Amino acid sequence: MNSKMIIGSTEAVCLPELGITQLQTRVDTGAKTSSLHVDNLICFKKDGEKYVEFDLHPDAYDLEHTIRSQAKLKASRKIKSSNGEVEHRCVIETLLKLGEQQWMIDVTLSNRQDMTYMMLLGRQGMSDRVIVDPSESFLLTH
């Protein structure tokens, strides 16, 4: 029996360590890395370790509402976007809650203001835990 959960091309995810619940997210098997739209990104050191602080938009339809969050900086990577441009992005590791399951994922912090969804869940973030049904959306929403 297959223990992978079936998800749609769009799902509501939670990022509890960042204070985000029910963020509408685009599931993209064509993207390697997950990305999250942030504004006002600053890097700083705390106790000798690198951190990032940023504003998140938990509701794509209310961009005035923001949550200020911070996370330990895991890395800085060159990422090739869907339009072919290469940019440096900060990478954090955070807890992803999808349906009744949760696991740690790497997320790049980027400017997705021109995109429909504030977050994109890529293949690495899906790990070996899900099967995507591209004809469905919000299969895990109760």
Keywords:
142 residues; single chain; two-stranded parallel ribbon; 5-stranded mixed barrel; mainly beta
The gist of it:
With 142 residues, the chain is an all-beta fold. 3% of the residues lie in helices and 58% in strands.
Architecture overview:
With 142 residues, the protein is an all-beta fold. The chain is 3% helix and 58% strand. It is built from one helix and ten strands; from the N terminus they run E-E-E-E-E-E-E-E-E-H-E. It has one helix spanning 123-126, and strands spanning 5-8, 10-15, 20-27, 34-46, 49-56, 67-80, 86-98, 101-110, 119-121, 130-133.
How many distinct beta strands?
10
Instruction: Give the averaged pLDDT, no decimals.
Output: 90
Parts with pLDDT < 50 across at least 5 consecutive residues? none
Helix content: under 10%
Distance between the termini: 24 Å
Q: Main beta sheet, described? A: 5 strands, mixed, barrel
Number of helices: 1
